[in-house]
Amino acid sequence: MENIKIKVNGNEVEVSPGKTVLQVLKDLGIHVPVLCNYEPLLPQGSCRLCLVEDRGVLKTACTVPVEPNMDIKTDTPNVIAARKLVLQLLFSERNHYCMYCEVTGECELQDLGYEFGLDHFDFPTYERKFPLDDSHEFIMMDHNRCVLCRRCVRACSEVAGHYVLGEMERGIDTMIIADMDVPLGKSTCVSCGLCAQVCPTGSITDKRSAYLGREVQSDIIYSNCDICPVGCGMEIYKKKGANFIVKIYGDWNSEVSQGLLCKKGRYLSLYDEKERVSGIRIKDDFGYRKGNSEGLIKLINSKIKDAIAYVDGSLFNEELALIKEIFKDKVYSIYPVEPQIPSNISLKDLDTAEFFVVIGADLNRDYGAIGSMVKRRVLGKKAKLMVIDGEFNSLAKIADYVFNTKNINAAKDVLKNEKEVVVIYRDLNKEEKEVLSSLNNAKFLFLPQETNTIGLHNLGIKHEKVSAPTVFIFGKDLEGIKDLPIENSFKIVFTPYENEEIHKADVVVGTTNGFESEGSFYNLEGKTLRKEKVLKPVYDAIDLKTFLSEISGKIEKVF
Predict the structure, then answer these.
(1) Which residue, 7, 8, 289, 539, is most buried by CB atoms nearer than 10 A?
(2) Which residues make Cβ contacts (< 8 Å) with residue 546, sequence separation at least 6?
(3) pTM (2 decimals)?
(4) What CATH number labels 215-270?
(5) Angstrom distance (rounded) from CA 109 to CA 507
(6) Cα 33 to Cα 50: distance, rounded to the nearest angstrom
(7) What is the pLDDT of residues 39-61, one digit of tens each?
(8) The CATH classification of domain 347-446, taken from the options 3.10.620, 3.40.50, 1.10.10, 3.30.300
(9) 454-507 pLDDT per residue, tens
């Protein structure tokens, strides 16, 4: 379509049709105040702060599309007066006492007050008391500071797909509610935290980050979450000059997740309370004694000749490559690596799917970002959902069809009549694999058990149960070693976490973990993503990549 001509503050410009007035003004570098408008969300026009004048009529710039012969004015006395009136009303409707607000200094409403030189209230304020909801484990909702921009409501539905937040009452009495007006902590909220990220005031805040510092006092590190194989993009706010993370936001520019995070990535990664392995422990007749790097290298050299290595999918590509270099073809995965049915779709394909089949995986619990992608289609009435599981699955309550895994053939009878279905699975037994593979209308998305399962597969590391006189074990999740034939082997374990199984090892070495380590991994789509180092280790722990690099040359002499 051809460009259209409009006037902006007396100057004629050509603009692309389909854009809003606000988008055009942004493109021209003209500042327009906004509050309810937030770029990843659909425009709503509720706050009225973006008012502009078009041929004598006030219009909301964020919702009005450009049209031929518009005469937009952004700074007339009428426009300025209208914006000031709106701002006065916003401050007066609730209790915005900035001195005691957690987000003072980075509040968008406060910034607008400074922009408009607001030094007094024209209307009575602080006359009504609104409730504070402290029921949630991670999130605080203070209705006194709400401006009813509804960013939280829109983010919860349009982006996160949870449809937990809504509103009740009308006008000044409007309240943001969870579900059918229950406390947030007792609602269906899955703790993705996106509502707190998009809130422009101190109405919805993260409890953990409260009063720990402003964003300008933090260094922002862009990284990818490695808790699960989705690999969501992160904005990590690290306190300047301190070894401390203030908060984590979703990265809107992430190709993988486009701003999504789940409970594990946003919150639980900062609440890691598992008992850590510290230092080097070597077992003798009296138990474990403290070892050192020199003694460890000497011991490794004496044991490496007849050794094999087991690894899990928590290791980065760089670490796996070094282990392969040292142990050659004698490296095995603790857990299965091969998908029962290979993936043949991408995460972006989920945005257009019309029928989902989720089998053996609770996406709300274990793969939150993918859960969001599915739920925003299903709850948005754009797709159907079938859940197949042998145990409780939280997605069942929104599913169109629910089958026990024992009734997989009955599920097939429904699926074969659909045009196309997207099967999202983690583990399949033989019967499930045969039934689903027989569907001619199915696409598949494999959910690996571990973060870097695809990396193990790409490096040719297979899941086999092999014994040897000496066994090296590398990883975080070592529960599976109890099923390996290594009971009588000399075991050397490199891990960050204490575990009952590692107490049977002859040598235990503490490694860095979480935000203390860095490296690359393949996500479930096969994309190479990077985890950045943010913190210095607070435990006596070695960096595995550095240690392997240092000893690889020395060990090679043994072979």
Answers:
(1) 8
(2) none
(3) 0.94
(4) 3.30.200.210
(5) 57
(6) 5
(7) 999 999 999 999 999 999 999 99
(8) 3.40.50
(9) 999 999 999 999 999 999 999 999 999 999 999 999 999 999 999 998 999 999
